[in-house]
Amino acid sequence: MEYSKLFEAGYIGKCKIKNRIIMAPMGNINMADPIGRPLQKMIDYFAERAKGGTGLLITGLIPVSYGIDPTVSEDNDTTYFPRIDGSSRTRLSGWRDLTSAVHSYDAKIFIQLTAGLGRVGSPEPALKGKLLKSASFNRNFYVPQVPHIPFTDREIRKIVKNFGQAAVNAKVSGFDGVQLHGHEGYLMDQLTSAPWNRRKFGRYKNKFQFAVDVVREIKKRCGEDFPIIYRVDLTQGLRESYGDDVFKKDLKVWKGR
Prior knowledge:
The chain is α/β, with parallel strands linked by helices. It has helices at residues 40-51, 89-103, 124-127, 153-172, 187-192, 209-222, 234-242, 248-254, and strands spanning 10-12, 15-17, 22-23, 56-63, 108-114, 133-134, 138-139, 147-150, 177-182, 228-232.
């Protein structure tokens, strides 16, 4: 058969995948109840794709920064995203049902964890008196007149710890690994990219420190063999190829903002 390699088993770390077909992450919005527990339609959505023969499925983004990044929460501490942080047994029961449904078709599933939205989040919380935040002083993507102030190092360390707890919850819920949401201008990308992270002091002035800390925290909590995929932004690859020149225009534009 042509493309026979596509149907051969492969490994991500020590996690065996039955073929090389991977379903990339897509949004889970409106597939969870107000506390973030997966609804039956989310379970059915992933189960159907596992049934179709996909070797590995990856969920859409699931934030770990509730109470730190105001753009991921709704009123009364509800959310339009699924949640796996914290210690809610009710919430975790929904994830166990989802992973069990996927595993019944001999497929594997990774959870995509995100640091949050930062400057690409809705500016609406600012209308309610909340301070919007990002890696540095940045403008909101949708309404540039709305500013985002920098997260403190303490807040960023809290997000790192939340990654570890969310990964533990995912592991005990039956997930086979984690994908880190480090691309497309979201908060993890803001903390690790030169145009957005212009911090001059503290631990996270090193633009790679946040990502390193997150990986180490997950490995510490879940074990060295628990697989982690890091979805990196294309601009990081461009920087490796072309150096800092690729960022000069953005740096000129954003300095002083």
